[in-house]
Amino acid sequence: MSDKVTLEFLKGHLWKSADILRGSLDPSDYRQPVMALLFLKRLNDRFEEIVEELISKGKSKKEAQKEFNHDFFIPDDAKWENLSGVRSKVGEAIDKICKLIEEKNPKLEGVLTNTKFSDPKKYPDNELADLINHFNSPRLRNSDLEKEDIFGDAYEYLLEQFADETKKKGGEFFTPREVVELLVNLIHPKEGMKISDPTCGSGGMLIVSRKYVQKHKGNPRDLVLDGQESNYGNLAMCKMNMVLHGIVDFNITYGDTLANPQQVEGGKLKTYDRVLANFPFSMNWDNKGAEKDPFNRYEFGVPPAKDKADFAFIQHMYAQLNDKGQAAIVCSQGVLFRGSVEQKIREGLIAQDAIEAIIAIPSKLFFGTGIPACVMILNKNKPKARKDKIIFIYGAKDYKTGKNRNTLRDEDITKMVKAYDDFKDIDKYCHVADSAELKENEYNLNVPRYVDISEPEEEIDIQKVINELKDLDKERNELESKVNTDLKELGFKI
Fold first, then answer.
1. Region 336-348: what's the mean pLDDT?
2. Helix H or strand E segment including 434
3. Which residues contact 349 (CB under 8 A, 6 or more apart)?
4. What is the model's pLDDT at position 24?
5. Are 55 and 64 in contact (CB under 8 A)?
6. Alpha helix (H) ranges present in 80-169?
């Protein structure tokens, strides 16, 4: 029997760690320390493993520990062992180690120090000491794991559990894996591509894109993976998630994508081959000065400020595409049909031939919201056969019902992707509309306008109904005759 750490064991072990802090804290408060300590333990164990591997190849211990031998360097004063047995001022000890690691690893800036462990009201010594003791075992080296890649999957499981607990807040940082799989499979990223997620949350879009390239025999290291996130806690989780999935080549930046885009080069927006995003639906934003946006992102119109940032994000992502770029974006269905300025923006995007597909997806897929959503695919390099056309796909009926939320099955994803790839009509599922039909519908892009989703009416067999009525009439007459006979026998005059 193998003594390797399995994915199922790791999931259970990690989730139990939350129990130590769960009683006294809100999920959004205990999520961060659990994640940070787990990350710290994994970095330490992996660092020690690499040191031992280098020693076995003939390097001295001193040589093996040198910074240039490691993606992430752990100084002696920041070793996990320095925390074992600490029972007082535990938070201060953790903060010190976190600071040392970030100083030696600039790419991890803000990842560990984002959590202030030295707040005794939030994180009492005894609970932090128990949490450290919980993570003392098992050892988390690659050689200890059943498969090297299970740690990233276990971490993502933990993110999903926290997202489920935090409900509405969960949607801010975690897009369900199957939704991410759908977006990535729709736009087929390839090695050598530059990929962006300007509202990256916990980084799922970038991670799955990399896995897709690897699965299709491409070089996963030959990718540019850029992200931006406006919530610092989410930014920390994203960087952790990337590292724990074995990704060290990434550029994740902090800031408001609309107000202060960071994916910039030479005073202009950086452009990408692929953009994927699940931005916050119907968010308030400050549109003052947008008409004079230095990055010329709003060429089709400036969206209204109140609850209507959707087309600001969509136009930002369109501006991020290079001349061969594609974007897959999760949107609320409201962007498909709302009027006024938003209608003018849709008209502009359609006139530019920017939109390639609209896919209605099931409701209740996301944590904390039941708002009906869709996927919009933008393409700056449509094939000739797709010019001035949009395919509408009704994937909203295909899903697995769950207690708290619905999920997409593999077959549901495959069905939508195939329909998009084939780009042809399928009765009651998808329809390719040309520019004339779009104009006829006044640029309303609501999928049921183009795909007949009504249930077929049951055919009525008229002759069968007549025969049934005759039989009923005969039965009624027989019953009436029997009743009359019974009444006569009882002495009643009929």
1. 94
2. strand 430-434
3. 300, 314, 318, 355, 378
4. 65
5. yes
6. 90-104, 125-135, 150-166
At residue 265, φ and ψ (nearest 5 deg) are -145, 120
In the three-class reduction of DSSP (H, G, I as helix; E, B as strand; rest coil), residue 373 is classed as: strand
Q: Does residue 176 have a cis peptide bond before it, meaning omega lies within 30 degrees of 0? A: no
User: For the chain, which residues make up each domain, given as ranges?
Assistant: 7-148, 168-449, 460-494
- CATH match of 7-148 with 3.40.640.10: no
Residue ranges in 394-459 assigned as alpha helix (H): 410-422, 435-440
- pLDDT category at 148 given cuts 50, 70, 90 is confident
Instruction: Give the residue carrying structure tokens 């707040």.
Output: 119
pTM of the model: 0.87
- Of residues 137 and 325, which shows the higher confidence score? 325
Tell me the pairing of strands 355-360 and 321-332: unpaired
Question: What is the enclosing helix (H) or strand (E) of 116?
Answer: none
Pick the closest to residue 98 from 107, 85, 108, 87 (CA basis). Answer: 108
Token pair for 457: 């009416």
The C-alpha atoms of residue 78 and residue 93 are separated, in whole angstroms, by: 10
CB atoms near residue 242 (< 10 Å) = 25
pLDDT score at 471: 80
CATH architecture of 168-449: 3-Layer(aba) Sandwich (3.40)
